Fold this sequence. Notes:
single chain; about 30% strand; globular
Amino acid sequence: MQKNSKDEQNGIINLGTVTSNGKTGQQWIKGLGAAVHGTWARDVLNSEEFNPTDGVTSQVVVIKGTLWNDSDRLIKNIYTKAEKIQFEKPNAEIAGLIMKKFSEKIKVLGLNRIIVMSNPIRDCSERVASLLCIEISNNGLLLTADFAQRGDGWRRDDGFAFEIREE
């Protein structure tokens, strides 16, 4: 997929649909192996707040960071825009589902990473609420985590994943 393809309109990318499979955080860690990068991502996946679903089909959409000025690319503004266009916060498990189903597609989107805009999950130490992120690197995709309170570090080449639930 190239930039400005039929899958992208007005800075919103339609990735396609995924269906949840009930995998626990530990199963995602095992299944993704070395692609789960860093302690924070593992802590989020192992958190009691990581609650998988099974059989839920969702349309995955990504809002590009270019839709905000650098100083306005804040979590509250991103959630507000998504709500206005009737996108929902996804379940955090959607990070793994995106990596598995759309790995080739997201490598060519021109994004640095995709931040899954679920409800923030406290890591196992319960110190920090974080969001799972899919980092696009030269060596492939990595599953990482970023502090949910941040936002000042989010860049123009980041994308923010939401869902449209299919009934």
